[in-house]
Amino acid sequence: MVLAVLALSVLSGVAQAGTPVRIGYIPVLGSSALFVLDGKGWAKDAGLDLTLVRFTSGPQAIQALVSGRIDAYVAGVLPLLQARAHGADVKVVTAASVEELEVVSRGALSAALPAGAEGGLSAEALKSVLEKFRQAQSRLLRIAAQPPGSVPDSLLRFWLQKREGVNPVASAVTIVGVDIDAAQQAFLAGAVDAAVLREPALTVVRSRLKDVRTLASGHDLLPDQPGSVLAIVNPGAPERQEWAKTLGSLFVRATTLLATHSDDAVPFVTKALGGGILSEDVMKKALEGSASRFVSDPTRIVGGVRQLQDFEVEQGLLRKAQPVEELFDLDLWQQIKP
Fold it and tell me: What Cα–Cα distance (Å) separates residue 288 from each residue in 15, 171, 281, 297?
């Protein structure tokens, strides 16, 4: 009898064991769908045993992806092109957000901006601001981004060169490539004059500094700017097809909740991103302000990815352009879309 009970207990444990999935992510608001589906227990209920692996930049996560240390990826889309260029079979299943990144200013740079201007500067106005700053401060302004090859770095350079005509960039600004947390801290400390940030860092810096202004909104940088995505390694492999579809469906469900009932997500996102420092009030404000930017449809970002890839090839960050359509698993998207 005892043996029978033990056998049933063992079998029950086996039955309850979920499919292990290792997901690399960047700790930003664009990754919130991952925190929601994990925090609410949806993944566990669907038979997935998730391990969330934190990275501070897209290139870091790509190294882990290429080496086989993660099965899925929730972060910016551009580094995935580099992974595919190195032979990794990784595909975007669903978008997570658009227009996440903004360029914000402080101090002397904020003071140099035209009165009332919050983003939307013309090329002529921006060049005038940069020149006035250089003359007044006897140096180029410093902008914190992330390392070369990351979405913030490429997008900043794209905006300056292609949309504002600041070329070469090095003649007008100094770009400081650091990780996400360091960019926020450098901005708060006044070590840089501007930074490429996203939520919740944007809400944090605006709550702590009174002179923060928007130099370029997410839409200014690039309309429908590609943000975070869910990508899966070898999604077509027989052993991955089922969990890939399940994970994708849950991710879309979580993204929809963020867009329509962001209050429900606050505790899970605060736990993942707050680190015991950020309050739920700060996270609630960040989520409410970002609700319209939580989107699932990956076809919205294909054009932006193509533009940014062409720019990275031009800059020498990619040897050659990859077929953008092959980066997206639109067949799987058709199966999971709402």
Answer: 39, 38, 11, 20
**Alpha helices in the chain, H assignment, sequence order:** 2-16, 32-39, 42-45, 58-66, 78-85, 107-112, 123-137, 151-158, 180-189, 201-208, 218-221, 238-260, 266-274, 280-290, 302-315, 330-336
At residue 265's C-alpha, the angle toward residues 145 and 253, to 5°, is: 95
In this predicted structure, the answer to whether residue 7 has a pLDDT above a threshold of 80 is: no
pLDDT in tens, 234-257: 998 999 998 999 999 999 999 999
Residues in the chain: 338
pLDDT digits (tens, 9 = 90+) for 287-307: 999 999 999 999 999 999 999
For residue 192, CA distances in Å to 120, 142, 170, 180, 335 come to 21, 5, 15, 14, 46
Q: What is the DSSP string of 143-192?
A: EEE--TTSHHHHHHHHIIIIIT---SGGGTEEEEE--HHHHHHHHHHTSS
Pairing relation of β-strands 48-54 and 19-25?
A: parallel
pLDDT band, very low/low/confident/very high, at 16 (cuts 50, 70, 90): low
pLDDT above 50 (res 212): yes
* Among 193, 175, 192, 196, residue whose Cα is nearest residue 76: 196
Burial 48-81 (b: 16+ CB within 10 A, else e): bebebbebbbbbbbbbebbeeebbbbbbbbbbbb
The pLDDT score that the predictor gives to residue 149 is 79
Whether the predicted pLDDT of 131 surpasses 60: yes
Q: How far apart are the first and last CA of the chain?
A: 49
